[in-house]
Amino acid sequence: MTTDKNVSSRCAFCTGQGCYPLVGANDPLPPLEKAPEFCPMRRLPDEIAAAEAVYQKKNTLEFARLASVQEAECYEMTDEGLKTTLPRIEETIRFAKKCGYTRLGIAFCIGLRDEAQQVALIFKAKGFDVISVCCKVGRIPKESLGISPQEKIVSPDVFEPACNPIGQAYIMNAEKVDLAIQLGLCVGHDTLFMQHCKVPGTVLAVKDRVLGHNPLAAVYLSRGPYYSRLKTPSA
User: How many domains does the chain have?
Assistant: First the structure.
């Protein structure tokens, strides 16, 4: 399908009635013609069909099925309505067990070393073999990446090893972990880790140095005066 170059997929600005209509399981779905012009189901039907076909591959189908089962277990319908039941770490544990995984890898930021130790202890208590790799593995000098002394964090005169997410990924691959779990890798470093890690992966927590590793707090506060600067147009 030829797409209009002046229109792009913008699901964030849709009510979701096209892809998640509130109808009965056996009721007809609303026609896509009623979806917004920017709906990717209207704009890119070939890509949607190609993705749906991938789910029918044997390994992918079972993995996707288990992921959906795990999603449903995180909720409970009560007399008061729908409630959530599991924090992410328990969700991760249950999903790993569903998949038959026994060897978990934790790729963590050195700034979250204490948290990584607690996570490792939790996974071990649940019967997993746990591998953990710090971001400073390899002790690569920042200068080798073109970082000037003035661009270091602590002091120009102090040795600072660069974060090494590629090394973390290579170790995860070599250790043959069943599931690689990111814990607080920096923006950009997490990207490199995902690019080079060849085993299935997930994220337990992302780094936010200011907000206790809860980056959505700034998004919520952007509606008021505290982080309104986030919505100030950039030059």
Answer: 2
